[in-house]
Amino acid sequence: MDYALEINHLTKRYKDFCVKDISLKIPKGTIMGLIGENGAGKSTIINTILNIAKKDEGDIKIFNKDVYQYESVVKEDIAVIFDECHFNPNMKPDKIGIMMSKIYKNWNQETYLKYLNQFHLSKDKKIKEFSKGMKMKLSFAVAFSHNPKLLILDEATSGLDPVVREEILDILKDYIVNDENAVLISSHITSDLDKVADYISFVHEGELLFTKTYEDIQDNYGILRCGKQMFEILNKEDVIAYKKEEFEYRVLIHNRQDFMKVHTDAIVEKADVEDLMLFYIRGGTCFMRGIIYKDYLIAFLPKNIISMLANIIVSIGIVIFFPNYYGLALTVALAIPVSGSALLQMTMEQDEQSNFDKMQLTFPMTKKQIVLSKYIGGLMTQSVFYLFSLVVTLYYYFTGVAEFIPALQLWILGIIVGLIFFGICYTGFYLLGNKKGSIMYMIFMVAAAIIYILSFFNFDVMSIVNVNHNILLMIGIILAVMTLIGSYILSVKIYTKRYS
Fold this sequence. Notes:
This protein is an alpha/beta fold. The chain folds into 3 domains: 3-217, 3-Layer(aba) Sandwich (Rossmann fold); 221-282, no CATH class; 288-498, no CATH class. It has 20 helices and 14 strands. The protein has helices at 42-49, 71-75, 93-101, 109-118, 132-143, 162-175, 190-196, 214-220, 228-233, 256-262, 273-282, 288-299, 302-321, 325-339, 342-354, 356-360, 367-398, 404-458, 461-465, 470-498, and strands at 3-13, 18-27, 31-35, 57-62, 65-66, 78-81, 150-154, 182-186, 199-204, 207-213, 222-226, 239-244, 249-253, 267-270. The radius of gyration is 30 Å and the shape is elongated.
């Protein structure tokens, strides 16, 4: 497929806002609607496309040319219409035509005069005498008159009356008929997008939540109206978001056709672009990050902070009293990685005490997402402990206790041990529950300590670290990844069976 516009991993940072990792593609011959509330990042994306704002990361191509490398060439094929007319208010349309003919190689004066006539704009009248709607029509006349291949509209139809907007939308539909041109239109008037858009991209708080075909939205998304009793028995995999109103629930679902086959008496309306935007922004969505955030709140309860600080103090004590390879191995390959799995034990304990599982099963999340949120939160905690163990590793290296490569190998070994321990413990907690899982966790920790102590008296650690273990480490990494994947799949099955 040929694309008019390709954005890959675009990031633009400001002091108090960031557009993060945006990727989207507009095929030739299509119209993409860019939606989102004020301040979501739509104009920032457009400004980076035009190099009005310099990107921090990512790349942007227009008709397969890098925008920043071939800026002047690319902009010959672009027309942009903002939410206001930016021509000098004392200029007249006829002079603007002369000016633009000296800027664009493909300027067509006949086309320009045709649009002036079509929009009933006097070519001899000063722009400051035009109404806002007339100024916007002038912007459209200019945009269409240099044969652009990509048209970018930033809230450009907001100042037009319904009749003129309808006329502009018809022009846009004719504009892409040749399958070579394309349109990116950012608009708050979602009803316009319902009439012309082939794709919808939704930006929220600087992130691209989705890009969907309009056909997908029309065919598969719906708004269910139901009472509390039906809402409570809904399969959460069907639910994207919901709104609780005074006498009913309004639920956004993504498989309308299949849902109606199962629930033949249900009232399900087609969803439009505005429905998707409002439900995603204001509906009762509960993304996995909400569960992760909850787990981190639990982790920073006073008693849990004390527990984590104790682990850190023990590790520092080992560093002080064992300034050798044995101390390094004990710290970075055992004590710190094993401690990284403590978050699950903390959250499981608190969740069981408050019976939180019963509540989170009512959230619009699948059981897979609930389990996955635990894994993501746990791995984020693990990564913090791995960074701490890296600091310890570098300390041993810079103080001359350990050589760099053996120390690094022990650190990688610690990551492998930590991930395997992590996967086993998580499955154990889901299988056994908090109390038995905590006992299992302690048994594993004691067993690991005993194994290490025995190795202290029976093996020469120097003979181990001096061997090239690259292949063994690779095998260990593969084993750790397989353990994590297997652990997650098994945990999902256990959790699903428990609450089915």
